[in-house]
Design goal:
Layout: H1 6-13, H2 28-40, H3 45-52, H4 73-85, E1 103-111, E2 115-122, E3 125-132, H5 135-138, H6 142-158, E4 166-172, H7 175-183, H8 189-205, E5 208-213, H9 216-222, H10 224-227, H11 252-255, H12 258-266
Helix pairs in contact: 1-4, 6-8
């Protein structure tokens, strides 16, 4: 449900400071540019307030909370989406913790300003995709390019039901992509739409998707960083095992033994109890 509540939220908050005409929050730079434009055109505040339906004081701040709000265009789309989601006599099922996962898929995705690449391990070997951005895509933010690349890789793999019953662990060195998917939303309209497409994929295809942030160094060693630049001879592309780059089975002390000493030092002699996974 959560992604389809954006229209309600944008409608309720569209009157606030630093919001565009459809309720999305503007960046400080965008808001400053809008105020400078009105100032350059010598548009009086009362005229601007009449045109936008927002009564504003100095520096563009709302004077009072309005008695009524204007619905944003997206609200209608969200209502129709929720209507479809609740049209069945019983709630739609979504894979949260499957009792019988048929396969686990591990993959990495990386994007640069010029190109993109992704590699993932399935039964039978390594699959990969790479390419270069067109002019329009290259002008988007790096966060958009990173998440768009991950979405495209999953779309490619989902063809012909390729993700049905599969638990997907997709690794990225972009923390914004990870947090946006985890939260189910983003302040950026473009990132929000990408997250929504992944949620729809989970409903339609039935996979369980995890986006996990890793360091750029791990991305380089794994080979997908080079893949985004057209290099086909690094990491898994030269035959290294995909599992060697994703030690999810190891706890923190197994991966970094000196972590224990570091914690105990700043705990200042306090007793530290180290729990095992069973605890």
């Amino acid at each position: 449900m959560f992604p389809y509540l954006r229209g309600f939220y944008n409608s309720m908050n569209g009157w606030r400071n630093q919001r565009d005409d459809v309720g999305w929050k503007m960046t400080t730079r965008e808001w400053k540019a809008r105020l400078e434009l009105f100032e350059a055109l010598d548009v009086e505040e009362e005229v601007e307030a009449t045109l936008s339906g927002k009564k504003r004081g100095r520096k563009g701040k709302p004077k009072t909370q309005p008695e009524r709000i204007v619905a944003v265009p997206r609200l209608q789309e969200d209502i129709f989406a929720l209507t479809r989601l609740f049209s069945q006599s019983s709630p739609s099922e979504r894979l949260i913790r499957g009792t019988a996962i048929s396969e686990a898929c591990y993959g990495f995705g990386d994007a640069s300003k010029a190109g993109f690449g992704a590699s993932w391990a399935r039964t039978g070997g390594i699959k990969y995709r790479l390419g270069i951005w067109g002019k329009d895509e290259a002008e988007n933010t790096s966060n958009w390019r990173e998440l768009q690349n991950l979405v495209d890789a999953l779309r490619e793999e989902s063809k012909d039901g390729g993700l049905k019953g599969v638990e997907v662990f997709l690794f990225t060195d972009n923390s914004t992509a990870e947090s946006a998917f985890f939260n189910g939303s983003s302040k950026s309209r473009k990132l929000f739409e990408l997250v929504l497409s992944l949620r729809e994929m989970e409903i339609a295809q039935g996979p369980k998707i995890h986006l996990i942030h890793v360091s750029g160094k791990r991305m380089i060693e794994q080979g997908t960083d080079g893949l985004s630049r057209g290099q086909l001879t690094e990491g898994v592309m030269r035959g290294s095992s995909m599992q060697s780059f994703i030690p999810l089975n190891e706890n923190v002390l197994e991966r970094f033994p000196s972590f224990k000493l570091w914690v105990e030092e700043w705990m200042n002699e306090k007793k530290v109890e180290w729990l095992e996974p069973k605890d």
